[in-house]
Write a structure and sequence with these properties.
Elements: H1 2-12, H2 20-26, H3 31-42, E1 49-58, E2 66-74, E3 79-85, H4 93-107, E4 120-126, E5 137-140, E6 143-144, E7 149-150, E8 155-161, H5 170-179, H6 189-200, H7 202-221, H8 225-238, H9 243-250, H10 254-265
Parallel strand pairs: 3-4, 4-8
Antiparallel strand pairs: 1-2, 2-3, 5-8, 6-7
Helix pairs in contact: 1-7, 6-7, 7-8, 8-9, 8-10, 9-10
């Protein structure tokens, strides 16, 4: 066990905010960090959150629910769903549409009128330039083609390119911090402090080691092959661990991990 935890600690040092499980822990109950991110992406320096949650379930009683990486609400009632994606498939257009529709369905109480719906934002922070326009940020809005004007339904989808490099701008510095592995090299104090806690304090490192051990145990102790493979696929998406480590932690063969990796690339 001690040897395994030492390997975990080595891996934790290589994580960035683009790594799924590390990101989840960083933003757990981290309203100040989430508020900072939204202020920069939306260019709204006075935006103030009243609530925020990491790993928040948006339920669908008749179909598939989703788990938002970050779910928040501001003082005006606007709703924010922030998704951090290393895999392009996790940020496709129809997923954005689905997330946006579930937000409306969950906040629309009986007795409300459609005009009462708040503004909603589905924001993807992606490792790659998913829309391939070489832009730092993309704003997706419905429009009336014939009129050449916005539809103004107050439903917003935003893609942020984490590969954007320009440390002279607030967004560029933020994306630098998302890619950064060393807290001492980060620009924003709120993010640096959280990363430093998880990587450099005994309590924080123990929390991360427990998460990684839980991932390993989930795959090894639950007898169903599909659960073990789901764990391996998530690790492959994170893109941090080598194949032999994924095989060890997920409890499946190295050969099967290699096959899953090829299927994800295809």
């Amino acid at each position: 066990m001690q040897e395994r935890y030492e390997r975990y600690e080595e891996l934790i040092r290589q994580f960035s905010l683009l790594d799924d499980d590390f990101m989840k822990k960083c933003f757990e109950n981290g309203t100040s960090c989430i508020q900072l991110i939204l202020r920069i992406i939306l260019k709204q320096p006075k935006l103030t959150l009243v609530s925020s949650h990491g790993q928040h379930y948006i339920k669908n009683l008749w179909g598939r629910s989703i788990q938002a990486d970050i779910y928040a609400q501001d003082t005006s009632g606007n709703i924010y769903d922030v998704e951090v994606q290393k895999d392009n498939k996790g940020a496709d257009a129809k997923r954005a549409r689905y997330n946006s529709s579930l937000i409306d369905a969950n906040i629309f109480d009986k007795g409300c009128e459609p005009l009462d719906l708040p503004e909603s934002y589905v924001i993807f922070v992606t490792k790659n330039d998913v829309l391939k326009g070489s832009c730092p940020v993309y704003h997706v809005e419905r429009c009336v083609r014939e009129l050449g004007s916005d539809f103004n339904d107050c439903q917003h989808i935003i893609y942020v390119n984490a590969g954007y490099e320009d440390d002279t701008t607030p967004l560029g510095r933020l994306m630098h911090d998302f890619r950064c592995k060393d807290a001492s090299e980060m620009y924003y104090k709120e993010l640096a402090e959280r990363v430093r806690y998880l990587k450099e304090t005994r309590e924080g490192v123990n929390d991360m080691c427990k998460i990684m051990e839980d991932l390993r145990e989930e795959g090894r102790l639950v007898g169903r092959a599909e659960v073990r493979e789901e764990t391996a696929v998530q690790m492959l998406r994170d893109g941090v661990l080598p194949y032999d480590k994924i095989a060890l932690y997920a409890g499946i063969s190295l050969e099967r991990v290699m096959i899953l990796g090829k299927e994800m690339i295809a």
